């Protein structure tokens, strides 16, 4: 059953999150209204964020969820269950089947702040071999208990927002995020007598991006001059969510004059108001997520009417 926000009077689907009176009054608020500065609901009771029951695992959850907007029955899935489903599906866009096995080069070819990247030859279910990249936490972070689930969750959120961005903006060069899959190492891999990966360790696998690699933005304010779409996308994610920005955009801009021309991104970061998107979420308490160099986003977004960066 749809519901109406008692503040802005907008209608929402029953699958969309809301704040509801804890005393079970027929009083609901949407998140944007709740988050208005100095806003206080005109209601005598406390409002609580409505929880939901995951249709996959059956557990009660609060916050982000994946839901079907067209089903007549309510279907909600927590991100952990969605990630499990992604594990069983192919992360490529060419429909060549899921990854059956991998052969890893134990020497990393690239390294970031928290993870190393390794070249992989993946054997697909149809027998074809494809170049993939395996990403694993560096020993310091792995031993500290960091889980790869949050990395895949960030990719999934960026992927979802990019689909909306491409649909609304209709740019000649859409933004595409390579979706990783969670993979559990079946054996321990060593190099020079030291383990590089251990049996049971969760890593991320994603298709290798061919082309000239560029860093288009960082998660601390840097934006590469001369490229409009990445900055507009980052601004779009804030306007769409009002609670986070997708940044640290890196990958390849493919220009071949055909239908495959696009920005292909990997390893995004999310900066958020709640600072709950992993170790690269660098939201600063003093001035929100769109800070430092993101003031420059106003310039590249002015043509779409987005001038209220804060």
UniProtKB/TrEMBL annotation:
InterPro entries, alphabetized: a-kinase_dom, Alpha-type_PK, Kinase-like_dom_sf
Taxonomic superkingdom: Eukaryota
Entry's Gene Ontology molecular function annotations: ATP binding; protein serine/threonine kinase activity
The protein, known as: Alpha-type protein kinase domain-containing protein
Source species: Darwinula stevensoni
Keywords recorded for this protein, A-Z: ATP-binding, Kinase, Nucleotide-binding, Serine/threonine-protein kinase, Transferase
Annotated ranges, domain Alpha-type protein kinase: 85-309
Pfam families: Alpha_kinase
SUPFAM superfamilies in the cross-refs: Protein kinase-like (PK-like) (SSF56112)
């Amino acid at each position: 059953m749809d519901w109406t926000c008692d503040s802005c009077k907008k209608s929402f689907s029953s699958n969309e999150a809301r704040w509801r009176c804890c005393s079970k009054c027929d009083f609901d608020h949407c998140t944007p209204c709740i988050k208005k500065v100095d806003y206080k609901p005109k209601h005598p009771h406390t409002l609580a964020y409505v929880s939901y029951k995951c249709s996959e695992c059956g557990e009660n959850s609060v916050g982000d969820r994946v839901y079907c907007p067209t089903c007549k029955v309510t279907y909600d899935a927590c991100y952990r269950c969605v990630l499990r489903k992604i594990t069983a599906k192919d992360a490529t866009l060419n429909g060549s089947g899921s990854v059956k096995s991998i052969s890893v080069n134990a020497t990393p070819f690239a390294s970031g702040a928290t993870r190393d990247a390794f070249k992989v030859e993946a054997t697909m279910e149809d027998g074809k071999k494809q170049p993939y990249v395996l990403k694993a936490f560096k020993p310091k972070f792995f031993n500290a208990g960091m889980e790869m689930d949050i990395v895949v969750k960030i990719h999934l959120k960026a992927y979802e927002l990019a689909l909306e961005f491409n649909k609304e903006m209709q740019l000649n060069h859409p933004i595409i995020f390579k979706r990783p899959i969670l993979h559990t190492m079946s054996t321990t891999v060593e190099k020079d007598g030291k383990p590089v990966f251990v049996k049971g360790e969760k890593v991320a696998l994603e298709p290798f991006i061919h082309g000239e690699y560029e860093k288009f933005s960082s998660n601390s304010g840097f934006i590469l001059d001369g490229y409009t779409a990445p900055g507009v996308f980052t601004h779009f994610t804030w306007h769409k969510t009002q609670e986070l920005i997708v940044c640290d955009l890196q990958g390849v801009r493919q220009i071949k004059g055909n239908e495959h021309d696009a920005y292909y991104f990997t390893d995004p970061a999310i900066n958020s108001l709640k600072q709950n998107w992993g170790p690269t979420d660098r939201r600063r308490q003093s001035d929100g997520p769109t800070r430092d160099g993101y003031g420059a986003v106003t310039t590249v977004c002015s043509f779409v009417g987005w001038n209220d960066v804060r």
